[in-house]
Design brief:
Radius of gyration: 22 Å
Number of domains: 2
Order of helices and strands: HEEEEEEEEEEHH
Distance between the termini: 74 Å
Number of strands: 10
CATH architecture of the largest domain: Sandwich
CATH class of the largest domain: Mainly Beta
CATH topology of the largest domain: Immunoglobulin-like
Helix content: 10-25%
Strand content: 35-45%
CATH superfamily of the largest domain: PCu(A)C copper chaperone
Structural class: alpha+beta
Number of helices: 3
């Protein structure tokens, strides 16, 4: 009787282990960009001479596995970094770098003013509203590339026109860099424009 009970316990344990394995399989990660769709990509127009611009889009994963975005690049800029705006208990906002962003299966992750975004450093030329910028997303363990054409715009698609004077009055955010550097000043300017756009 005891031996039969032991066999039943062993069978139940084996079934439990198999169930855990199947559950793990349902949470697998795509080795590349999978079924990832990039919607409404745009880059905020910057003042003449600015060395930093901000890019935004929406990532929709229509597949059955999660997709991990490891980074963004562009041949039209010296470098690109994914950031996220974080507000502390005192209400002060700063931008923290993101090493990767996971888009769960069947879900959408937004990169928008006041939240996740991409900072584009040192443009190869001056870009005006209506120009096209190519962004390249790197996904999965294979570092697969997903090219995206983003349009340079004055404000977020669907938003009302923003008063330029009010944009100049906005204060910049702290990016955690030396405020004396030109790059930090440009980032603060980009952040100010980002703040102004989200104020509408």
């Amino acid at each position: 009787m005891q031996q039969k009970l032991s066999r039943n316990v062993a069978v139940l344990m084996a079934v439990g282990v198999m169930s855990l394995g199947l559950a793990a399989c349902s949470e697998t990660e795509a080795p590349d960009c999978g079924a990832l769709q990039v919607n409404d990509p745009w880059v905020r127009v910057a003042p003449q001479g600015a060395r930093v611009m901000g890019a935004y889009f929406s990532l929709a994963n229509d597949g059955d596995t999660r997709v991990v975005v490891n980074g963004v690049s562009s041949s039209q800029f010296d470098r690109a970094e994914m950031h996220e705006t974080v507000v502390n208990d005192d209400g002060q906002a700063s931008m923290q770098p993101l090493e990767r962003v996971t888009v769960p299966a069947g879900e959408t992750v937004d990169f928008k003013p006041g939240g996740r975004h991409v900072m584009l450093f040192t443009p190869s030329q001056a870009y005006a509203a209506g120009d096209q910028v190519e962004l390249i997303l790197s996904c999965g363990a294979q570092s697969a590339e997903l090219p995206v054409a983003a349009t340079v715009r004055a404000q977020e698609p669907g938003m009302q026109s923003q008063d330029d004077a009010s944009m100049k009055d906005m204060k910049g955010m702290d990016h955690g860099e030396d405020g004396s550097s030109d790059a930090a000043s440009d980032e603060a300017g980009a952040a100010a424009a980002e703040d102004a756009a989200t104020a509408n």
